[in-house]
Amino acid sequence: MRDFERLAEEALEPGAHGYFAGGAAEEATMGENLAAFARWRIRPRVLVDVDSVSTGTELLGGPLSMPVLVAPVAFQRIAHPDGELGMARAAAAAGTAICLSTIATSRPSEVAAAAPDGRRFFQLYCFRDRAVTQALLDEAVESGFEAILLTVDAPRAGRRERDLRSGFEVPAGVSVPSLDAALGGGRSLSVAEVFSQVDASLGWGDLEELASGCSLPVLVKGVLTAEDGALAIEHGAAGVVVSNHGGRQLDRVSASLDALPEVVEAVAGRGTVLMDGGIRRGTDVFIALALGADAVLAGRAPLWGLAVDGERGALRVLQIFREELELTLALSGCESPAAVTREHIQAAPAPRLYSEGLG
Ligand SMILES: Cc1cc2nc3c(=O)[nH]c(=O)nc-3n(C[C@H](O)[C@H](O)[C@H](O)COP(=O)(O)O)c2cc1C
């Protein structure tokens, strides 16, 4: 995965690379998302029959080849001309689901047509103009999307300093067709323009309204506390995504992995708990499962695959996730993701501040 990350940096124009790679402010949370996994150790069990190991799982009423989904990432055509259509085909070929961003460079109906057999979930930003929001939802429902991830951690865009320095602009010719009609049609929209349309007044009542008026399950993406995990379920959500938006929104919040246990406890089996942030290896997936996630989303990792080699690169990254997870399961004595428990991990020993013998 690190090779793809490096090759993507070579493949992308520097401003575009900064947009995809960057986080908010000091990028402290972005770094924490990765560091959090290093604070756990796997406790492998031996002499368990792992002759046949499956990474397969069930999520939101359907099967997945593995508990790793493609996270919603905006503007994928900037990474590669294959864009979201290539990503959707890669996810389908890998047997997993794509979560399509509201800020996608292909319409939901086009993504459905590109990978009709793949599972697809739709990430929704709720816009001030509810007619725009409703039109997006209607298209997703009609196009066979199976769930809505309502992103709630972005009432404003985070302070992405790499973009401020590079002066990154969405390239001419890259548009967000599903927002065109509402926001002025056919031209490139800036990241700031899109976020300026997000309804910053959204509250729990709006979630309740959305969840009760929508035929699909609604998951709340961007939850980091037990309080909000419980409120989401109480207001009609089918689940939550424990996420800090890949460290791109509020800096200095917890790593998603560190927030996961309190949210799992608060949801208490009443809904699905997904997490994202820092997933780069099969062992990361394993640790998140052990801490109670039903599945994880990977954002930048498949995006780097797409940037390097389009649909083929994204598929390769997803295959690597599956291979690594299968190996991790086999070597830790788990025949499937469902067999992973809290007892399969422990906190790493605290780092020694002073070396022994120095008195
Ligand atoms: C370039 C980029 C664009 C993103 N766009 C969206 C988006 O449109 N909607 C959304 O809910 N999350 C978006 N995210 C956040 C991801 O869905 C996910 O939470 C995050 O990337 C997970 O962290 P990871 O990149 O370390 O896997 C974006 C992330 C990146 C890196």
Q: Measure the end-to-end span.
A: 43 Å
What's the count of strands?
12
Give the oligomer, counting copies of the same chain as homo and different chains as hetero: single chain
Q: What general outline do the C-alpha atoms trace?
A: globular
Number of helices: 14
Percentage of helical residues? 40-55%
- Gyration radius (Cα, Å) is 20 Å
Low-confidence stretches: none
Mean pLDDT across residues: 96
Q: How do the strands of the widest beta sheet line up side by side?
A: 4-11-10-9-8-7-6-5
- Percentage beta strand: 5-15%
User: Biggest sheet, in brief?
Assistant: 8 strands, parallel
Give a list of the ligands: flavin mononucleotide
Structural category is alpha/beta
Primary descriptors:
359 residues, alpha/beta, 8-stranded parallel beta sheet, two-stranded antiparallel sheet, 14 helices, 12 strands, binds flavin mononucleotide
